[in-house]
Amino acid sequence: MKFSLTWLKDYLETTATVSEICDALNAIGLEVEGVEDPAERLAGFRIAHVLTAARHPDADKLQVLTVDTGDGNPLQVVCGAPNARAGMKGVLGLPGAVVPANGMVLKKSAIRGVESNGMMCSTRELELGDDHDGIIELPDDAPVGTAFADYHGADPVIEVAVTPNRPDCMGVYGIARDLAAKGLGTLKPIAMPAFTPAGACPVEIRTDDPQGCPAFYGRVITGVTNGPSPDWLQARLKSAGQRPISLLVDLTNYLMLGFGRPAHVYDMAKLQGAVVARRAKDGEQVLALNEKTYTLDAEMVVIADDAGVHDIAGIMGGEHSGVSETTTDVLLEIAYFDPARIGATGRKLGLSSDARTRFERGVDPAFLDEGLDLLTGLIVEFAGGQPSEVVRAGSPPAQAKVVAFDPGLTLRLGGVDVPEGEQQRILESLGFVVGADWHVTCPLRRHDIEGPADLVEEVVRIHGLDKVSSVALPRVEGVARPTATPQQKLERGLRRAAAASGLNEAVTWSFLPEWAAQHFASDQALWVLSNPISEDLKAMRPSLLPGLLMAAKRNADRGAASSRLFEIGRRYFRSPDGLSDEKPTLGLVLAGEKTPRGWQSGKAQGFDAYDAKALALQLLETAGAPTQNLMVMGEAGAQFHPGQSATLRLGPKVVLARFGMVHPATLKAFDADGPIAAVELFLDAIPAKKGAAFARPGFTPPALQAVTRDFAWAIPKGIPSADLVNAVRHADKESIVSVRVFDEFRGQGIPDGLKSLAVEVRLQPRDRSFTDEELNLISERIMLSVADRITGGMLRG
Amino acid sequence: MTDIPSQTESALAAIAAADSLDALEAERLETLGKKGWVSLALKTLGGMTPEERSAAAPAIQSARARVAEALDMKKAALEAAALAEQLARETIDLTLPAPAAPRGSVHPVSQVMDELAEIFAELGFAVATGPEIEDDWHNFTALNMDETHPARAMHDTFYFGHNQRNAAGGQMLLRTHTSPVQIRAMIDQGAPIRIIAPGRVYRSDSDATHTPMFHQVEGLVIDKGIHLGHLKWTLETFFKAFFEREDIVLRLRPSYFPFTEPSVEVDVGYSNEGGRRVVGGHGDAPGHAWMEIGGSGMVNARVLEFAGLDPKEWQGFAFGLGIDRIAMLKYGMNDLRAFFDGDPRWLAHYGFSPFDQPTLSAGVGARA
Fold this sequence. Notes:
The complex is a heterodimer. In chain A, helix 8 (339-349) packs antiparallel against helix 9. In chain A, strands 28, 31, 32, 33, 34, 35, 36 and 37 form an eight-stranded mixed sheet that branches. In chain A, strands 6-5-4-7-10 form a five-stranded antiparallel sheet. In chain A, a hairpin with a 2-residue loop joins strand 4 and strand 5 (59-68). Helix content of chain A is 26%, strand content 27%. By secondary structure, chain B is of the alpha+beta class. Chain B has two domains: 4-89; 108-350, 2-Layer Sandwich (BirA Bifunctional Protein, domain 2), CATH 3.30.930. Chain B starts with a helix and ends in an 18-residue tail after the last helix. Chain B has helices spanning 4-17, 21-31, 37-44, 50-90, 108-122, 136-139, 150-153, 180-189, 228-243, 301-306, 323-331, 344-350; strands at 126-127, 133-135, 172-174, 193-202, 213-223, 250-257, 260-273, 276-279, 288-299, 315-322. In chain B, a hairpin with a 2-residue loop joins strand 7 (260-273) and strand 8. In chain B, the strands form two sheets. In chain B, strands 1, 4, 5, 6, 7, 8, 9 and 10 form an eight-stranded mixed sheet that branches.
């Protein structure tokens, strides 16, 4: 909402400066978004007297002027305006001045070889009007040398952001009222115009939809003359950011901007029969003033006559019955529409307008007659004509809300002690009526007031939020209690463990291109946005890996040698009840070089699946998962290399993590260069530690030293080493404390189809040392157990 | 019998000339070995009369002692030389690069979330969470924005299709703010309650300073007798702790949010230093200005009712701050889009060491 200082002063008697007014506006909740002072825009433009005018020696259409700017040193200026002549007074832009219309910086120059020390300006160049036929001609008494801004009268324009709860401030008068309440001046009563209506309104007016349009008032004015608006009106509208159109249209806009009251003017010559507010028929069409055709439905209110729809009620008038230069007789419409229905219609049509903004937030139901009279008075004064009597169909809501208020609430809720008398003054200055025992009657225009808290807000915002002092929150005695949940502690620990392992934490979009999400979805249905901002941000991610893969690709494209990225975030699934099932997850990718080429290590090395496995286990360990008991199983998913990926499970069904090399087809789909290793940890599957105490169990190192024995078997290539390890462990669960594969070998000396695995077995004696006999026995049991469990294996040593 | 003194002298000369441990050993055998002349000479003493022995012994004993000492000294010298030579051989070029361990980092958003949790835990706030894919009841209706509310349209909401409604028929959407967590926390925990709720939020808005996904933190205090003064203190106290400076000045301005009444916009005073905004000082002081930093207010009675609390008994405040925004202000990033790019150069530059765990005793912030 923009308005000029002059306009504000029409309604507010004040001596306050612009900056005082702006401070007050900010303080009462009308946020100042900008102040435009035309004096600044007109800096460098002066009133000048043309002393001589002569033809330019080399150009027919140019003249060479000498102009006096009051300092006794006439300047030579080249000018192309046909009306430039000796003796006239005009506006000269001096070198350094910026032409408001085009931002051009004026400078001393030569035009066709003749020196020019500035520019004589047209109205359009100074953005004071549309005239560009010649330069500005000022009256003879204009003081030469004076800054043009001072002579012209600089009128600062203030722009405020009006919050949607305050449609009463979507007119200058409402802003003046708030400022007066704040003590910035005195609100002037609205000056009602004097005119003499004659005869009943010749047009029949009805509302056939009392719910959508409770009130429709009208009046006819005959014999008006439309045309361009006078300069003052054009200036007002421009200050408010409105383009002047024609006198009749401009006057309705003037009413709307001044009082927040939209109205509409129809050309009576274009109407047939009764003018009715009714629901549109499904499929009915109207060509609106923005020259677009809208198809309506039965949920929308329109103003129509026998011939059809003339107005999308409360939103935009129709092209057909709008006023034109030839209009002589007009019908004025002032109506009250149901705010919710206006909003729904506007959203459905995707149509915004100043009228809609006001109607859907709620105009003043008590301002129909005054608004109509104000508009009538303006039209009669500036366009002439004879008004009829008012005709009224229906009636606007008239039931004022009464709030039982306790002025003590201002302190209890607002935290500031405002004397009751001051509270009453504030409320009354805003138009509230404070009754005995603090029953407060709200003005009808204040649709936002629902209860006592709203009145506290009125009192506090006018009294001053700066007067609210800080008061410490009551706190529990002693040191603050821990508040983090196990899940939060888990994520914090994992984040720092992953970073400590050399990974950079990334935050990537929660939404993906649909193909990327599909690629990582298994059989679950995805969440897909119906109004994405782009196709690249459309489907909610079912995995953290696609976002990280795309980041790794971007990095590689920028020449990064490697990307070690992790992210902790959610995967989004749909649960059967239609709600969101968001699973906390850690994803990581290892792309590019694990180690660069080096004098020690030789060629650059990439990441492999064991790097992924190491990180997966290390992070699961940090997360408190029982890593000793995990099973390494398959089915990491189609996005992984089938032979170089696995899942880590707690029991056959609970998958804690998947890891491995990304499938070449996935790399291709993401246009990424491999190999890339990846891990995904499913944080919701990690069992919470239960009932852990601070105290650890006692430390009881074994009294006797452990004994190690090495074995080697050749077993079929397809059998996982874990099977062998389990077979060994099974031989003597009491004595064997660890079994570790320390060599894997295939090739020379090993029969085809077999691989050699060397295993270190650690045996822990309990209360006495093993005898040689016992050790032999254990070795024999180990060999038997392996022979039993591993088909096709043979002991090598 | 040879002359012992001259034998001794020649043995000492041979020891001195030995150039290896092997040569020295040969000399030892020659002298002190079982068949060495010193040993043999010593043996002759046994067959002598006491008088002969006392005449001959001193010369032999002295020869033995001198030879033994010379052998020991020479051995030590040869060993030292050998070690010195070995060490010289083992010398390496330590200007060659050592294997580098990659340095990881924590994202600024996570770091700031940890800082928030730390500061607010001190004030008794727990961290609450809620779904990012919400229904319109929690995101709007329960926050006093019914279907026709103009403020709904101002939220630039991302919606899911009509076939993606919840069982109750609710329209599913991406939460536009963290405020629905207020509703969920109040319904789950009742009152009194003190929570912050940091997390991802979404608006269909994208330009130089807006991204369609960003981070917010919600604060909520519901108790008895909580008023605007407590809200002001809480935000002041938070910002002082967060920016670790005492000269934080907040300006509260009346505003409008459907879910609070009264509603308050929060500005913080700042100055421009070297092209950067530095928080601190009064916004009206010379060289200073105000910057909008968050929205807040006293929780609307209707919202309390929607969440099942009796507004006659309970009241409190709520606030919302942009996490990315305060992270940028504190740590000097200037491009929000880079937050979500995953560029390791940016992450290493603006990210944090895993050991910069925010603590109150060390100050929650991590200095560059």
